[in-house]
Amino acid sequence: MFSVRCLAPLASAALLLALPAAAEEAVCAPVAKVPLERHLRQLSLDLLGRPPTMEEYKAFQAKGSVTADDVRKMMKDESFYTRMREFHRALLRSNINGSVQGNGDYRVSGTPLSFAGNNSNALRGGQSQRCDGEIAQDACKANPQDAHQDNSTPPACRDAQGVPLPVSYDYDPNFYQCRQLDVNATEPELKFADCNALKANATYGKYVNFCDNRYNSTAGKSVGYLCLPDPNKNTTNVLVASPATGVITAWVQPGGGTGLRLDRCGFDISKDSGGKDLPLGKWRPQTGCVQREGYVTTAVQPYWSTTTDPVKVCAVEAQDRPTNPYTGESCETARFNGDRSCGCGDKMRRCEVSDVHTARVAAFNEEPLFITDSVVRNDEPYFNILTTRRSYVNGPLSEFYRQRQGVGVFSVKAPADSAVLPAVTYASTTQWSEYVRDSTHSGVLTTPAFLYRFPTQRARVNEFYEAFLCKHFAPAADASLPPPDDACNRENNLAKRCGCNYCHATIEPTGAHWGRYAERSALFLSPDQFPRLDVKCRDCALNGDTGCGGECSQYVMQAFDGDGANSLGLLKTYLYRTADEEKNIEGGPQALVRRMMETGDLERCTVKRIWNEFLGRAMTAEEQRLYLQTLSQDFAKNNHSLKGLIEQVVMSDAYRRID
After folding, report:
1. What's the rounded Cα separation, in Å, for the pair 218 and 195?
2. Which residues contact 359 (CB under 8 A, 6 or more apart)?
3. Which of 17, 36, 287, 367 has the CA that lies 20 to 30 A from 85?
4. Do 596 and 602 meet the contact criterion of CB atoms below 8 Å apart?
5. Which candidate, 100, 96, 102, places its Cα nearest to that of 463?
6. Each residue's pLDDT tens digit, 371-404
7. Can you give the pLDDT at residue 24?
8. SS3 of residue 212 by DSSP
9. Which tens digits make up the pLDDT trace of 522-551?
10. Residue 5 pLDDT
11. Where are the alpha helices (DSSP H) in 294-353?
12. CB atoms within 10 A of CB 162
């Protein structure tokens, strides 16, 4: 415990009382002994998050004091560990709800389970369009939707490789105005009971190919609609019928002009916009048409399901292929949801529903808190929270890693081999199991929660400095800038650019410790897969191909200065790096923590944060002079025990003086 008593004469004390407000930092006033009940209440609220019970009041009144042993006992209570988890939640800002957006393009919903996002454009020809829930894929010829039309039966349900083909089609409302047939309609072209009645009419039978049976949710079945080019859009209101007499098969530009052409819908998805055959493994819905595959029924439940009933799934989404059978392109990357041949995989593992995204984000948010909790609970050296490879998974995270789920939404490499990862069922959201991550990991600093919450190397450095060193980046008070036309202002290396270098001379080399973790993701850039220099990327860049087939997004592909010109094909994190900074990249966050451990800054910052947490305010300058060094040294000597530090703070006279 610390006790500071004022030994100066009364005259000096009176003089102190007469000083201006700056003297309020003095802490040499006599320490009044606080009542036992107040001290107990204060400790209970701060350590356990609740006031004492009447039984506890009576027990301590009988005992006569609160001792260090009593504090240690409180710190074994589960309420204390809950209190510490919330302390670390705030310290780490462990909340990525706003950092990872599930945009819906990898999400399935409805019955049958179906994509309904932007990717439906590539699969079916319209945004948010689903498959045909009335036609079984493998019985596609049994009940054609538009039997009133010629060639209304699909020529095949699947192609030679088993890829589902369209089984029905609707006219796209982005091009057509579709109005429901109704015998009571005022428009003569709509006064029919169904498409067969319209077909039989001498005047309006010419529209038979554009009479579309489509599902009506009010009727609960497919009903007839007449779909003609939208007269309210300047792209379609100029189109004329072709042929000009007889049954119409297309809508074309007047006078044979070039431009938009809308052919009657069918089942063919093998042509490009010019009518030429696409390469095998590529498909394109017909312009103006929504071409739907059917559904399949399976007894294999999605991984998130809690029932055992058979499930209806759209035939495209129901597939499970590792690659496109024609092109060999991977179905295990974000592109899978736009490739007709891929599907959601076994048990729909590549896809999700809205509750899955919520559960995953919640689990990522909690993971760092389980790491910090284990260190505090086991009374390990506190800075193990920054270096330990130990971590935890619950059901959603275990399934996510072991089944390679979430591609396209999260960019995260499994932190350990699947044989090491605990097998926890998806529904077990509250069951957390311990495991050891691979050697690239470093405490909370490489968790997805940290990497997504602080998405750039600079943001990660800033959080580390603020949270664990109690330092902030700001230019010096006497900092100055050169004239606007000074060449230094055009320096691309922020560590050298005038004005920026006040902060970035520290930020840039420190950020290199996260250089092997991609920005705006949590993906570890393994040297095996992402070498320092990629020759293919360099050659693409030299030839002006900055895209390079989408393989070089992590590499320098454009030059903005001499250093950039000499760095083409270099992994971006190595740009502008010195030899020492390259060592930081390979050393990772672990090397940063080791270096900071040698400075004493980590200990001093932790003392300040615990002081602030339990006294409700920052240390004054005088308190820093009296307490900071001693507390920091004792913290280090006591094996960096956070419990020991907390005990010292709450048993100090400064804590007892809280009013």
Report:
1. 19
2. 396, 429
3. 36
4. yes
5. 96
6. 999 999 999 999 999 999 999 999 999 999 999 9
7. 42
8. strand
9. 999 999 999 999 999 999 999 999 999 888
10. 35
11. none
12. 12
CA separation for the pair 10, 13 (Å, rounded): 5
Write down the H helix ranges in 141-294: 195-200
Our CA angle for 631, 653, 59, nearest 5°, is 115
Burial class (CB in 10 A: 0-12, 13-18, 19+), 610: buried
Q: What is the DSSP letter of 530?
A: S
Helices first, then strands: H and E counts in the chain: 20, 14
Structure tokens at 468: 């664990």
Model pLDDT, residue 298: 95
How many Å apart are CA 372 and CA 270, to the nearest integer? Answer: 56
Is residue 387 within 8 Å of residue 593, measured between CB atoms?
A: yes
CA 501 to centroid of chain Cα atoms: 32
Q: Is 443 left (phi over 0), alpha (psi -120 to 50) or beta?
A: left
pLDDT of residue 18: 38
Residue 267 to residue 526: CA distance in whole angstroms? 45
- Write down the pLDDT at residue 377: 98
| Listed residue (47, 90, 642, 626) closest to 381, CA to CA | 642
Residues in the chain: 659
pLDDT at position 216 is 84
Which residue type does 204 have?
Y
Two structure tokens written together for 267: 């089942």
CA dist., res. 260 & res. 242, Å (int): 13
Q: Which amino acid is at 203?
A: T
Confidence of residue 22 (pLDDT cuts 50, 70, 90): very low
DSSP state of 265: P
Lowest mean pLDDT among 215-224, 329-338, 450-459, 575-584: 215-224
pTM for the structure as a whole: 0.88
- Integer Cα distance of 288 and 211 in angstroms: 14
Going by pLDDT thresholds of 50, 70 and 90, the confidence category of residue 30 is low
DSSP state of 348: G
What CA–CA distance (Å, rounded) separates 604 from 619? 11
Bridge pairing between strands 176-180 and 221-229:
antiparallel
| Sign of the alpha-carbon torsion through 365, 371, 374, 376 | negative
Q: How many CB atoms within 10 Å of residue 65?
A: 9
